[in-house]
Design goal:
Blueprint (H helix, E strand, L loop, with lengths): L13 E7 L10 E3 L21 E6 L9 E10 L8 E3 L1 E3 L10 E9 L5 E9 L10 E6 L2 E9 L14 H4 L23 H4 L28 H4 L6 H5 L6 H7 L5 H8 L7
Parallel strand pairs: 1-6
Antiparallel strand pairs: 1-3, 2-3, 4-7, 5-7, 8-10, 9-10
Length: 275
């Protein structure tokens, strides 16, 4: 059965489980479990025939956004003769010198790093020997008149921060910032590439000089599109298109050369004299 996902933002994985005699012996990062789920005393020492106290205590991860150290991935209650599973350790004891914990059954936990953990123990509760069931909790076993329950769930890993994107030189060239604000050592942006139509023009024509603000033609960026009446080429033989010849400037001058001699002769004639 897959572990449920813990959606409670205030619920953090446990980092440790231990025994403590009282609040004084319990470390400040641990929380003493001094009552059961129904409000009864959770003193395990009463079952041992001792006058002193013995309680379970747990510590939790205080910051899931910046986790540090290991977390508790599992907890088990083992009989004394059973070998300790690989990767497990008995829970820590923060007890007075005269207080002893029963060795007939012993609690052990498995701790792993936060980055390697898929599931974790988020809470521990106690109930009496009654058949009371704690919803969403898993029964670990019975010890000294108490039934131990734990709540397991999936570990919610913080989302990694996106890496800063490097801005290319072409994008930096679009910046409207002053040239003086450029970072020292930054290479200059590549020169603006002109269209093939403009590169064939003579460089002496300053209007098409790339250094001139008017060097950008109004036709730049305008797509070449045929008029709708010429789009249908079903009745046009493909041979006429493939055999189309592009004439040079000199060929056009020779073919359509006209001297205007007739017009010049007529203009040179003297007006008729009046008789």
């Amino acid at each position: 059965m897959a572990a449920p996902e813990i959606n409670d933002p205030n619920c953090y994985p446990l980092t440790g489980v231990g025994w403590a005699s009282n609040q004084n012996t319990c470390p400040k990062e641990y929380q003493l479990i001094n009552t059961t789920a129904d409000g009864s005393s959770a003193n395990f020492a009463k079952g041992f025939g001792q006058k002193s106290s013995c309680y379970l205590c747990v510590s939790s991860l205080l910051n899931k956004e910046n986790p540090q150290g290991d977390i508790v991935s599992d907890i088990q209650l083992l009989p004394d003769k059973n070998p300790l599973p690989s990767g497990y350790a008995f829970i820590t004891e923060f007890l007075d010198p005269k207080v002893n914990v029963s060795k007939k059954k012993r609690l052990c936990i498995r701790r792993v790093t936060f980055s390697e953990a898929d599931t974790a123990v988020f809470d521990v509760k106690l109930t009496g020997k009654s058949k009371q069931i704690v919803p969403s909790y898993t029964c670990i076993g019975e010890l000294s008149g108490f039934v131990i329950w734990c709540r397991k769930g999936k570990v919610a890993k913080p989302k990694p921060l996106p890496k800063p994107r490097s801005i290319g030189l072409d994008m930096r060239g679009l910046s409207l910032e002053n040239e003086n604000s450029r970072i020292k050592g930054e290479p200059d942006a590549p020169p603006v590439r002109l269209s093939k139509r403009r590169t064939t023009l003579e460089h002496k024509d300053s209007i098409y000089n790339a250094e001139n603000i008017y060097g950008i033609s109004a036709m730049d960026g305008v797509p070449f599109v045929l008029h709708p009446r010429f789009e249908t080429t079903v009745n046009v033989p493909s041979a006429n298109i493939t055999n189309l010849q592009i004439k040079s400037h000199a060929e056009i001058e020779n073919e359509y050369n006209y001297s205007f001699m007739t017009e010049k002769t007529a203009a040179a004639r003297l007006p008729p004299t009046a008789s």
